[in-house]
Request: fold
Amino acid sequence: MPYFRVVGSGLSVVNEREQLSSLIGDIYDAALDPALQIGVLEKIAGFAGGHSCGLLSKHSVSKSGNAYSYVGTDPDSLQVYAESYPQLDPFDVEQVVSTADLVPYDEFRLGRFYREWAEPRGWVDVASAVVDKSATRATVLGIARHEASGLVDDEMRRRMALVIPHVRRALHVGNTLHLKRAEAECFSGILDGLSVGMILVDGNGCIVHANAAGSAILGAGEFLRAVGGRLVAGDAETNEILREVIAAADAVVGIKRIALPLTAQDGQRYIAHVLPLSSVARGGADLAYTAVAALFVRKVALEAASPTDVIGRIYKLTPTELRVLLAIVDIGGVPEVAAALGVAATTIKTHLGHLFEKTGVARQADLVKLVAGFSTPLVS
Reply:
């Protein structure tokens, strides 16, 4: 994120090599911890022999500057500075220029920036360099020179040239980290918006990430739980299958997803779709980088928000056939559905045959999957 910091500083008299080495380390530390940026800019100003230092993000078309944060000045002065010197943009990246390289010095002294902001603070010159540039924006490092030190000289240019490459690299590091954090936060936010439980596991079955619904399932511990960080199914046979599926996902490319039936302690039935993740999919976000498989876990039931009328229209089901279909999803087999609806099992079998014919499936389990496909996966 572009920003502008301005801090005061005096020139320290220390061994240049030691000071530069320490400053470079501080510059990269500030890329990881933005709270260190003000102190680093103060050290840059001191090393170069300047009075204050700042980073200004300028828009290449409008020439306006963005002051995201600042110390020791006000945003109006930054705006005027950016608009006063559009000539800075054509200069090569990392080339150090003084005020006189941009405009005649007498013209600079007559300008609004000098009269209203520079002169009252004792600034007589500014050394600037573009440290990053894109098609739409340039980031400029500027160091103001105080009247006590005189105008920008060759020694100041030389010292700035030693620091600028590291400032540029640190900006790239900081922007990359900011982007990765934003990707990870967006990734987590999307997953937490799913009503379906989602659990990512690595090749050893260790849980890499679980969304909010998945964490709730693991917390309940009825049919899936975390043991020592590993995903474990409550049923021994199902757990063995789960281990084999995860191992295959890690070793074999191109295998298809597998559905595992799960049963809670109260008899409620769930289904877990295990989706192997390809190496391409895994590289999309740091959060999921080590995951080899994703489990999508949901209750085998038709949620109230499901568009049952749409199902009926698409497959041209009669009201009775639709009622039988939903009962199969919610209750289970033919005997249970017959008892719940108060009709003979043969009647349910007749309707079931009609459902198979109209939907094109041949098993009750496929009817459950068909209905589940119409349910929204998002939290309402």
DSSP finds 15 helices and twelve strands in the chain.
